[in-house]
Design brief:
Strand content: under 5%
Helix content: over 70%
Number of strands: 0
Shape: elongated
Number of helices: 6
Distance between the termini: 19 Å
Structural class: mainly alpha
Largest sheet: none
Radius of gyration: 18 Å
Order of helices and strands: HHHHHH
Length: 172
């Protein structure tokens, strides 16, 4: 039984749900990094499977950030106007992460069927940059917004989980 169904359907605080999403996204990126390392070590997935894994991760992260930008952040800004600068900084990070994901997708789209050491360095650098920005972004967001989200009561988010709180296809 998961946290959402325990204690007679007791609701999980929104900030806590955000933490769960961040953990899931970190795990997805770690899996992608492992797949990339395995590929370049000659024992991994073929390029098309790595591209599919990358697409899944990128789609999930984009859905999360689009949901924040379009739904969560405006609601937070309305209730906590003092956080508008924080929210603006987080949106800037979202744009940077989108750009990094685009770079990674291009590199993975061009992967040869057999691992190439020259390409390995470029791909690993790009995925490490994406990982570093995502880690610092999540830490900053969690520090600034978890307690705020835990204090908020947005009935429509509880009835229909918004995109920024979705973990996988089961939630859709």
């Amino acid at each position: 039984m998961n946290a959402r169904s325990e204690a007679g359907g007791r609701l999980t605080a929104l900030g806590t749900q955000l933490l769960e999403v961040h953990v899931w996204l970190r795990e997805m990126l770690e899996d992608l990094q492992d797949g990339i390392d395995d590929y370049f070590d000659g024992r991994g997935l073929p390029p098309r499977d790595l591209r599919a894994h990358c697409l899944s991760f990128c789609t999930a992260l984009t859905r999360h950030h689009t949901g924040e930008d379009g739904g969560a952040f405006p609601a937070i800004a309305e209730e906590y106007p003092e956080l508008r600068k924080v929210l603006s900084d987080l949106r800037t990070d979202h744009n940077h992460l989108d750009w990094l994901m685009g770079n990674l997708r291009k590199l993975l789209d061009a992967l040869p069927e057999r691992p190439d050491p020259a390409t390995a360095s470029k791909v690993r650098e790009e995925v490490e940059a994406l990982s570093a920005v995502m880690r610092t972004h999540f830490i900053y967001e969690e520090k600034k917004l978890v307690s705020v989200l835990n204090a908020m009561d947005v009935p429509e988010w509880r009835e229909n989980r918004p995109a920024f709180l979705l973990i996988d296809d089961e939630d859709e």
